[in-house]
Amino acid sequence: MVWLQLRPVFRWFGTNSNPNKPFFGCPNYNTNGKRWCGLFVWADVGQEAMPAKSESVNYNDEHMMTEDWRLKKLESVVRSQKFMIKLLFLVVSVMLLLLVVVFWKLCSQC
Q1: Count of structural domains, the chain
Q2: Is 43 helix (H, G, I), strand (E, B) or coil?
Q3: First to last CA, the chain
Q4: Of 50, 48, 4, 47, the residue nearest 28 (C-alpha)
Q5: To 10 degrees, the CA torsion angle through 12, 14, 19, 21?
Q6: Phi, psi (5° rounding) for residue 11?
Q7: Are 38 and 29 in contact (CB under 8 A)?
């Protein structure tokens, strides 16, 4: 998944052999025109029993995980932009201070 720069999504298997069995997979799986990386991992490996998917759930698990990842990515971008703004402010302040010092020295020699 790293080479596609995508996060795995949480889904529920829907076949007769594995009804309602949770797994993590590539978000591009079974999507026309998109490259699939081949990721498939059962989510309940090592657990005794996993409750079956509730039919009354109104939200899409895959959509929620994707939105959570996008939100974290945006928060990271905002943090880096805030850092760059602070750094730019510091550089401009130092340049202005140097300009004032040079101007003051030139005026004091006149």
Answers
A1: 1
A2: coil
A3: 67
A4: 4
A5: -20
A6: -135, 170
A7: no
Structural contact between residues 21 and 45, judged by C-beta atoms closer than 8 angstroms: no
Q: By residue range, what is the domain housing residue 6?
A: 2-109
H/E element, 80: helix 61-109
Residue with tokens 């829907």: 14
Q: For residues 64 and 71, is the Cβ–Cβ distance under 8 A?
A: no
What would the pLDDT profile of 68-108 be if each residue is shown by its tens digit? 778 888 898 999 999 999 999 999 999 999 999 999 999 98
3-state secondary structure of 58: coil
Extract the tokens encoding 69.
């990842």
Q: How many CB atoms lie within 10 A of CB 28?
A: 17
Rg (CA), the chain: 27
Question: What pLDDT does 56 receive?
Answer: 43
Report for 16-25, 37-46, 47-56: range of highest mean pLDDT: 16-25
H/E run at residue 24: strand 19-25
